[in-house]
Write a structure and sequence with these properties.
By secondary structure, the protein is mainly alpha-helical. It has helices spanning about 1-30, 35-50, 60, 65-95, 115-130, 155-160, 165-174; strands spanning about 105-110, 130-140, 140-145. It has two domains: about 1-60; about 65-174, no CATH class. It has seven helices and three strands, in the order H-H-H-H-E-H-E-E-H-H. The chain has a three-stranded antiparallel sheet. Helix 1 runs antiparallel to helix 2, helix 4 (about 65-95) packs antiparallel against helix 7 and helix 5 packs antiparallel against helix 7 (about 165-174). The radius of gyration is 20 Å and the shape is elongated.
Length: about 170
């Protein structure tokens, strides 16, 4: 039991330290000054935020801060915007078509992501891409409303909806 408590405390301490340094980095970039009073105010505000919201900003604390993960983050956003662009045009074509060729359905897909934040990012990426909407997350399963269902098979639907985003998020969050 003591090991579990110590592990939780060390994880929370690590999260708090990372959050503090990220907040200070943003503070210093936004203030664009390295005066002592600016630094002291930033330190006080960052400490208060860490004490109040130590676990609340988990997308920063669960992010792997390795060079590969940071590079993958840029690649992820490139992939996301490419998919956003493609799906906007596809959905516009469907809406403008006189026959309105839709086949709406809720499909069940699986994710390999273990991180809570990675799964949340995946669900948000799916939702922000026109034509799909994350409806529910239940462990490794996501239920997605798909405007033009191409397949009801879990593996094929996972490959079409999830796999592209997941390959980047797995490196970034695990």
């Amino acid at each position: 039991m003591d090991k579990l408590v110590n592990k939780h405390r060390s994880g929370r301490l690590r999260s708090g330290i990372i959050l503090f340094f990220v907040l200070m980095l943003f503070w210093l970039m936004l203030s664009s000054q390295l005066r002592i009073d600016v630094f002291v105010i930033g330190t006080i505000v960052a400490l208060v935020i860490v004490l109040l919201y130590g676990d609340g900003l988990s997308f920063l604390t669960e992010l792997r801060l390795t060079p590969k993960a940071i590079l993958t983050g840029f690649q992820y956003y490139g992939y996301f915007f490419k998919e956003l662009f493609k799906s906007n045009f596809k959905l516009a074509g469907i809406v403008l078509s006189p026959s309105l060729p839709i086949n709406p359905a809720i499909v069940k897909v699986r994710t390999r992501l273990q991180s809570r934040m990675g799964r949340l990012m995946l669900a948000n990426s799916i939702t922000l891409t026109p034509g799909t909407l994350s409806v529910e997350m239940d462990g490794e399963w996501l239920y997605v409303h798909w405007v033009c269902m191409e397949t009801a098979d879990i593996e094929q639907a996972t490959a079409r909806i999830v796999s592209g985003f997941e390959s980047y998020l797995e490196v970034m969050y695990g």
